[in-house]
Amino acid sequence: MSILDFNSENEVLFDPGYSGAIARVSGNIEYMYSAFLSISSLKQKKFQFAVLYPKFLKAIDLNVAFYLGCMLWGVYLKSSPGRKIVQNPCLGAEFDDDSFGEIDFLINFIKEGLNRDTKYYLNKMYTPNPLYIAILEYYREFLSVNKGFVNTKLTDDIVIPKGLKSLGKEDIKEIYDIIYNAVKEDNLEILFKAADKIIPE
User: How far apart (Å, rounded) are the C-alpha atoms in residues 149 and 66?
Assistant: First the structure.
Protein backbone atom coordinates (compact mmCIF):
# COMPACT_ATOMS: atom_id res chain seq x y z
CA MET A 1 0.00 0.00 0.00
CA SER A 2 1.28 3.46 -0.89
CA ILE A 3 -0.01 7.00 -1.33
CA LEU A 4 -0.49 6.17 -5.01
CA ASP A 5 -3.54 4.05 -4.24
CA PHE A 6 -4.59 5.19 -0.74
CA ASN A 7 -7.31 7.79 -0.37
CA SER A 8 -8.95 8.67 2.92
CA GLU A 9 -10.00 11.94 4.54
CA ASN A 10 -9.51 10.69 8.09
CA GLU A 11 -6.57 8.30 7.77
CA VAL A 12 -2.98 8.49 6.52
CA LEU A 13 -0.33 5.86 5.93
CA PHE A 14 2.64 5.51 8.26
CA ASP A 15 4.80 4.68 5.24
CA PRO A 16 3.92 6.56 2.04
CA GLY A 17 5.50 3.78 -0.01
CA TYR A 18 9.23 3.86 0.69
CA SER A 19 9.60 0.30 1.94
CA GLY A 20 9.74 -1.34 -1.48
CA ALA A 21 12.61 0.84 -2.66
CA ILE A 22 14.69 0.58 0.52
CA ALA A 23 14.30 -3.22 0.51
CA ARG A 24 16.17 -3.36 -2.78
CA VAL A 25 19.28 -1.56 -1.53
CA SER A 26 22.27 -3.69 -2.58
CA GLY A 27 22.57 -5.43 0.75
CA ASN A 28 22.46 -4.01 4.24
CA ILE A 29 25.59 -1.89 4.80
CA GLU A 30 26.25 -3.38 8.22
CA TYR A 31 25.83 -6.91 6.88
CA MET A 32 28.15 -6.24 3.92
CA TYR A 33 30.72 -4.65 6.19
CA SER A 34 30.62 -7.50 8.71
CA ALA A 35 31.15 -10.02 5.91
CA PHE A 36 34.09 -7.95 4.66
CA LEU A 37 35.68 -7.83 8.13
CA SER A 38 35.49 -11.63 8.40
CA ILE A 39 37.99 -12.02 5.53
CA SER A 40 41.44 -12.80 6.91
CA SER A 41 43.66 -12.44 3.83
CA LEU A 42 44.86 -8.86 3.20
CA LYS A 43 45.00 -9.47 -0.55
CA GLN A 44 41.44 -10.77 -0.59
CA LYS A 45 40.33 -7.87 1.60
CA LYS A 46 41.75 -5.31 -0.80
CA PHE A 47 40.04 -7.00 -3.73
CA GLN A 48 36.74 -7.35 -1.90
CA PHE A 49 36.78 -3.76 -0.66
CA ALA A 50 37.28 -2.54 -4.23
CA VAL A 51 34.20 -4.55 -5.23
CA LEU A 52 32.15 -3.35 -2.26
CA TYR A 53 33.11 0.33 -2.36
CA PRO A 54 30.62 1.43 -5.08
CA LYS A 55 27.95 -0.71 -3.39
CA PHE A 56 28.64 1.06 -0.09
CA LEU A 57 28.29 4.45 -1.79
CA LYS A 58 24.99 3.51 -3.45
CA ALA A 59 23.63 2.01 -0.24
CA ILE A 60 24.60 5.17 1.68
CA ASP A 61 22.76 7.34 -0.88
CA LEU A 62 19.60 5.26 -0.62
CA ASN A 63 19.66 4.89 3.15
CA VAL A 64 20.17 8.62 3.70
CA ALA A 65 17.40 9.36 1.20
CA PHE A 66 15.13 6.98 3.12
CA TYR A 67 15.82 8.67 6.47
CA LEU A 68 15.28 12.09 4.87
CA GLY A 69 12.02 10.77 3.42
CA CYS A 70 10.84 9.63 6.83
CA MET A 71 11.32 13.14 8.20
CA LEU A 72 9.70 14.76 5.16
CA TRP A 73 6.68 12.49 5.54
CA GLY A 74 6.58 13.24 9.28
CA VAL A 75 6.58 16.99 8.58
CA TYR A 76 3.80 16.52 6.03
CA LEU A 77 1.69 14.43 8.43
CA LYS A 78 2.19 16.92 11.27
CA SER A 79 0.75 19.63 8.99
CA SER A 80 -2.50 17.65 8.77
CA PRO A 81 -3.76 17.39 12.38
CA GLY A 82 -6.38 15.03 13.74
CA ARG A 83 -5.88 12.17 11.30
CA LYS A 84 -5.36 8.54 12.25
CA ILE A 85 -2.09 6.92 11.19
CA VAL A 86 -2.59 3.40 9.85
CA GLN A 87 -0.21 0.48 9.23
CA ASN A 88 2.38 1.62 11.78
CA PRO A 89 4.58 -1.49 12.29
CA CYS A 90 6.31 0.14 15.29
CA LEU A 91 3.10 0.53 17.29
CA GLY A 92 3.28 -1.27 20.63
CA ALA A 93 6.93 -2.29 20.22
CA GLU A 94 9.59 -1.62 22.84
CA PHE A 95 11.79 1.45 22.49
CA ASP A 96 15.26 1.35 24.03
CA ASP A 97 18.89 2.20 23.24
CA ASP A 98 19.06 -0.71 20.78
CA SER A 99 16.62 1.20 18.58
CA PHE A 100 19.47 3.53 17.60
CA GLY A 101 21.80 0.74 16.48
CA GLU A 102 21.22 1.03 12.74
CA ILE A 103 21.36 4.83 12.55
CA ASP A 104 24.39 5.03 14.86
CA PHE A 105 26.26 2.49 12.76
CA LEU A 106 25.57 4.47 9.59
CA ILE A 107 26.63 7.78 11.14
CA ASN A 108 29.91 6.30 12.41
CA PHE A 109 30.51 4.45 9.15
CA ILE A 110 30.13 7.63 7.09
CA LYS A 111 32.03 9.88 9.50
CA GLU A 112 35.00 7.59 10.18
CA GLY A 113 34.91 3.96 9.10
CA LEU A 114 34.55 4.31 5.35
CA ASN A 115 37.28 6.94 4.97
CA ARG A 116 39.68 4.92 7.14
CA ASP A 117 39.17 1.78 5.07
CA THR A 118 39.16 3.66 1.76
CA LYS A 119 42.56 5.16 2.57
CA TYR A 120 43.94 1.79 3.67
CA TYR A 121 42.57 -0.48 0.93
CA LEU A 122 42.17 1.89 -2.04
CA ASN A 123 44.73 4.58 -1.19
CA LYS A 124 42.23 7.39 -1.67
CA MET A 125 39.97 9.60 0.43
CA TYR A 126 36.28 9.32 1.11
CA THR A 127 34.83 12.68 2.16
CA PRO A 128 31.33 12.44 3.61
CA ASN A 129 28.67 14.78 2.28
CA PRO A 130 27.88 17.29 5.08
CA LEU A 131 24.22 17.18 4.07
CA TYR A 132 24.17 13.43 4.66
CA ILE A 133 25.61 13.86 8.16
CA ALA A 134 23.04 16.54 8.96
CA ILE A 135 20.16 14.38 7.71
CA LEU A 136 21.29 11.37 9.75
CA GLU A 137 21.81 13.38 12.93
CA TYR A 138 18.42 15.06 12.60
CA TYR A 139 16.83 11.68 11.91
CA ARG A 140 18.40 10.29 15.08
CA GLU A 141 16.80 13.13 17.01
CA PHE A 142 13.51 12.55 15.13
CA LEU A 143 13.59 8.90 16.19
CA SER A 144 14.43 9.87 19.77
CA VAL A 145 11.77 12.54 20.35
CA ASN A 146 9.13 10.22 18.86
CA LYS A 147 10.37 7.27 20.96
CA GLY A 148 10.63 5.03 17.92
CA PHE A 149 6.98 5.76 16.99
CA VAL A 150 5.83 2.98 19.32
CA ASN A 151 2.92 5.15 20.54
CA THR A 152 2.25 7.10 17.34
CA LYS A 153 -1.42 6.69 16.45
CA LEU A 154 -2.41 10.16 15.25
CA THR A 155 -0.71 12.85 13.19
CA ASP A 156 -0.86 15.02 16.34
CA ASP A 157 1.42 12.51 18.11
CA ILE A 158 4.33 13.25 15.77
CA VAL A 159 7.08 15.46 17.22
CA ILE A 160 9.30 17.44 14.84
CA PRO A 161 12.88 18.20 15.98
CA LYS A 162 13.21 21.89 16.87
CA GLY A 163 16.21 22.41 14.59
CA LEU A 164 14.30 21.64 11.39
CA LYS A 165 12.93 24.53 9.33
CA SER A 166 9.35 25.74 9.76
CA LEU A 167 7.33 25.48 6.58
CA GLY A 168 4.44 27.27 4.91
CA LYS A 169 1.55 25.68 3.00
CA GLU A 170 3.32 25.95 -0.36
CA ASP A 171 6.39 24.17 1.05
CA ILE A 172 4.20 21.40 2.47
CA LYS A 173 2.50 20.92 -0.89
CA GLU A 174 5.86 20.82 -2.66
CA ILE A 175 7.15 18.23 -0.18
CA TYR A 176 4.10 16.06 -0.80
CA ASP A 177 4.57 16.31 -4.56
CA ILE A 178 8.23 15.29 -4.28
CA ILE A 179 7.34 12.35 -2.02
CA TYR A 180 4.58 11.30 -4.43
CA ASN A 181 6.98 11.46 -7.36
CA ALA A 182 9.67 9.48 -5.48
CA VAL A 183 7.14 6.73 -4.71
CA LYS A 184 5.70 6.79 -8.22
CA GLU A 185 9.15 6.59 -9.85
CA ASP A 186 10.34 4.10 -7.21
CA ASN A 187 13.41 6.28 -6.70
CA LEU A 188 14.18 7.49 -3.18
CA GLU A 189 16.97 9.77 -4.36
CA ILE A 190 14.32 12.13 -5.76
CA LEU A 191 13.67 13.01 -2.10
CA PHE A 192 16.95 14.94 -1.96
CA LYS A 193 15.18 17.66 -3.98
CA ALA A 194 13.28 18.53 -0.80
CA ALA A 195 16.22 18.37 1.61
CA ASP A 196 16.67 22.15 1.73
CA LYS A 197 13.01 22.53 2.71
CA ILE A 198 13.64 21.14 6.19
CA ILE A 199 17.41 20.84 6.76
CA PRO A 200 19.06 24.14 7.84
CA GLU A 201 22.13 25.26 5.89
Answer: 16
